[in-house]
Amino acid sequence: MMVGSRTELLGNTPPECRLRSAKVERNMKTLFALALALFVPATFSLPALLADDGVALAQAGRTKPVDGVKAAAEVVYPAKNEDSYEVDPKWKQVWADEFEGDELNLKNWTRQILPDPYNEEWQQYFDHKENSFVKDGYLVIKAIHTSDKHGDDQYTSGRLHTGGKHSWKYGKIAARIQLPYGKGIWPAFWTLGDDITEIGGTTPWPNCGEIDILELYGTRDDAIVEGNLHYDDGGHKQIGAKPFKLKKGIFADNFHVFEIEWNKEKITWLVDGEAYHSVDITDKAMNEFHDGQYILLNIAVGGKYAGRPDETTPFPAQMYVDWVRVYQEK
Ligand SMILES: [Ca+2]
After folding, report:
1. Lowest mean pLDDT: which of 54-63, 166-175, 306-315?
2. Residue 242: per-residue pLDDT
3. Domains of the chain, residue spans
4. First vs last C-alpha separation in the chain
5. Residue range 5-329, CATH number
6. Three-point CA angle 89, 266, 278, nearest 5°
7. CB 173 within 8 A of CB 161
């Protein structure tokens, strides 16, 4: 999910300056694009000029409309497919939240408040109960469009984490999730090092390590998920797991189980029990992945990696989480 790219871009300025700089930089970009638009031939479209590099790249990679995007009416939350998850007896469950009852268990989770997030994302994270709540055995996260226009700060969303409450080193970290979909929607199930400065620790990102168990970029393809590792090796390093593509339909159609198996040698990513990628973590520079990590769940909207939502994007974007479980080897 890339926590720290704002810091990376803007260096060691105090947080307040960084927030302001990011906004000022964005406004300057817009003004420049508007001024330019007055003088360039009509073959250049204004939206194309306004798009930042990440979006331009994401769009350039698309040679045809996104596969499988459906009208909101065709996707039903929660889906009714049965939970057939089974775990090998070598694993012992050490923690779980099954999301029973009517309230989010605050002994497990914190609703993070983050009104000006990372990666030029457009949503604001709040602790509003309409953005994250427990109902009928599910944790529901909703990204809500709060105006009739698209742009920065026009959406509220939920970002939940177990930081400061529960973290784990090694094991199997799994969740059964029905994902949101649509252009510019970027849901994730992921982990961060439990000593990260963001929650009051002493280790800045990416030195704390980040394991993306699941990311879906709605702008690219709602049938593809991917995993990523972020760490420090004399600067930010990233290793991407090869993407996993569904044979049929999109991830929003049904619940799927997303998980990693993590030991001192490697991290393996699985979808519905099928292992699709492994990364060796024995390199000395990857010490981040031999320490405690806590779990996060969120829906981002827009951003330089995920593209921008528009009138084709269904809102609210919804993520239903049936359970999150952590196992360790017996
Ligand atoms: Ca449940």
Report:
1. 54-63
2. 80
3. 5-329
4. 31
5. 2.60.120.200
6. 90
7. no
